[in-house]
Write a structure and sequence with these properties.
Elements lengths: L1 E3 L4 E2 L6 E2 L3 E4 L3 H14 L3 E4 L14 E4 L6 E4 L4 E5 L4 H10 L2 E2 L11 H6 L16 E7 L5 E5 L4 H7 L8 E8 L1 E2 L2 E10 H6 L1 H5 L4 E6 L5 E10 L8 H25 L4 H11 L3 E6 H5 L7 E9 L3 H14 L8 E6 L14 E9 L5 H12 L4 E2 L9 H4 L6 H11 L8 H6 L3
Parallel strand pairs: 4-6, 5-6
Antiparallel strand pairs: 1-4, 2-3, 7-8, 8-12, 9-13, 10-11, 10-12, 14-16, 14-17, 15-16, 15-19, 18-20, 18-21, 19-20
Helix pairs in contact: 7-8, 10-11
The structure holds flavin-adenine dinucleotide (FAD).
Length: about 425
């Protein structure tokens, strides 16, 4: 265990910070349990921070902060393809380790910087109508509880804790090891094309089933959706123009936005021209590469994000309302809206618990006021029983969230057992879980 002197900790987007009393980097479960017991004795609260990529204050604490960089190795992959790993491992390291063993994760979100424990604590997801979020791949986990106990949890041992702890919002204890399902390593064939938004929404059901991984980006001010369809393939990418396409992908998803935002802010009259130009930039690109390279795009532009999960069938209507809202704003957002889908699951506080979900994510470039836009979007999402991503910005409270989660009380009961004294509480859990 190494201790570092008190410091200020900030999240990726720079909108959250805290000054922990102490920061520890334990290298074993036993050390984690000792830190937890010591904190409980001195009455300090404890939190783990992963990669600090949540836009909410989920990982912030003025108590004792743990970084699990020392619990980040792959213990092994069994014959069924289940990988047992240190919970602090980053998704990028996990992908590398799995690839070297001929394995991979079946799905990923847009980036791979998060820790596995942090990503799954907030129900991080990719896209795919038949695919659950990352937490659904967890088949076992080790939890250090608020009473210093170390519990292995799976569908047989401590099954009720397991059901809740796969999406814990960081509130049930410290997860030190995770067993997660993997699949044989695979390549993806990715096709990106600009398509009329009206068509995508009109044929929504067909659209979401038109590829294993489907999503689109819409730039406010345009009528075009930039569609990405990714499908597994046995081909390799050597025949495709990957360099050019990669450059285009980076440009469209990152740099062009950054440069364009600065121009629009300086010269508001250029907004229409710039947003139309960006919407039309991508002229249909095609790539084949390792799945983890296709799923993930480096994010060079910092931003604020809100993302809501709603019943998948409600997306066309809700999206049109977001379009109207964005277009009517005096300062229309010049950052794309991202739309994805994921399958229902049975995890207590998973944002997809009990329902196939459609995801609508809105962004504001860092430094641009976001309250009006985000509050307007949240109001729309409330009409569809929207569940905000636990790691992305939102204004909900325990009172408004509880009715949206049928298993809310089951989660609370588990929490009362694993953290009776609320050692793992912080301002975020106080707001969204009520204490
Ligand atoms: C640029 C960017 C792109 C993103 N893309 C996507 C995307 O495509 N899809 C998506 O769904 N989300 C996405 N997110 C959101 C992101 O995946 C989540 O916010 C995720 O929780 C961040 O992981 P982290 O390791 O940084 O966790 P942190 O933000 O550090 O922590 C999140 C929560 O997990 C808890 N936690 C961390 N480790 C442990 C542990 N070992 N035991 C118990 N609790 C723990 C923390 O205390 C905290 O409550 C994105 C975020 C950014 C900034």
């Amino acid at each position: 265990m190494s201790d570092t002197p008190p410091t200020v900790v900030t999240n990726w987007s720079g909108n959250q910070s805290c000054s922990p009393l102490a920061v520890h980097t334990p290298t074993s479960t036993a050390e984690v349990a000792r830190i937890v017991s010591a904190a409980a004795e001195s009455g300090d609260q404890v939190k783990v921070i992963g990669a600090g990529h949540s836009f909410t204050s989920a990982a912030m604490t003025d108590g004792v902060l743990l970084r699990l960089d020392g619990l980040a190795s792959v213990e092994g992959v069994d014959v069924l393809g289940v990988a047992t790993v240190g919970a602090g491992i980053s998704l990028s390291a996990l992908n590398r380790e799995l690839r070297s063993r001929g394995r991979g994760l079946p799905n990923l979100g847009d980036i791979d910087k998060q820790s596995l424990a942090g990503a799954t604590a907030t129900a991080t997801h990719g896209t795919g109508a038949q695919l659950g979020n990352l937490s659904t791949g967890i088949v076992g986990l080790e939890l250090v509880t608020g009473t210093g106990e170390v519990l292995w949890c799976d569908t047989i041992e401590n099954a009720d804790v397991f059901r809740a702890a796969r999406v814990s919002v960081g509130a049930l204890g410290i997860i030190t090891r995770i067993a997660i399902e993997t699949v044989p390593a695979f390549n993806l064939h990715s096709v990106e094309s600009p398509e009329p938004i009206g068509d995508l929404l009109k044929h929504w059901e067909d659209f979401i089933n038109s590829a294993q991984h489907i999503e689109f980006f819409w730039m406010p001010g345009t009528q075009i959706g930039l569609v990405k369809r990714n499908n597994p393939t046995s081909r390799d990418g050597s025949t495709l123009r990957t360099a050019k396409d990669k450059a285009e992908k980076l440009l469209v998803e990152n740099m062009a936005f950054g440069a364009a935002m600065r121009t629009v802010r300086r010269f508001p009259g250029t907004r229409e021209f710039i947003t139309t130009a960006i919407g039309g930039l991508v002229s249909g690109t095609e790539r084949i590469d390792r799945s983890e390279r296709i799923f993930v795009t480096p994010r060079h532009v910092r931003f604020m994000e809100m993302e809501y999960g709603i019943p998948v069938a409600a997306v066309p209507e809700a999206f049109r309302r977001v379009q109207e809202l964005a277009s009517a704003m005096p300062d229309p957002p010049a950052f794309p809206v991202e739309v994805r889908v994921s399958a229902a699951d049975d995890i207590d506080l998973s944002t997809a618990e009990g329902r196939d979900s459609g995801w609508i994510a809105v962004h504001r470039y860092q430094g641009v006021p976001y309250d009006d836009y985000f509050k307007g979007v949240e109001e729309i999402m409330n009409d569809y029983d929207g569940r905000p991503h636990w790691g992305k910005f939102h204004y909900q409270t325990a009172e408004t969230l509880a009715p949206r989660y049928p298993q809310w009380d089951a989660f609370a009961a588990i929490r009362n057992r694993t953290d009776p004294d609320r050692l793992f509480a912080n301002t975020y859990t106080q707001r969204v879980l009520g204490n």
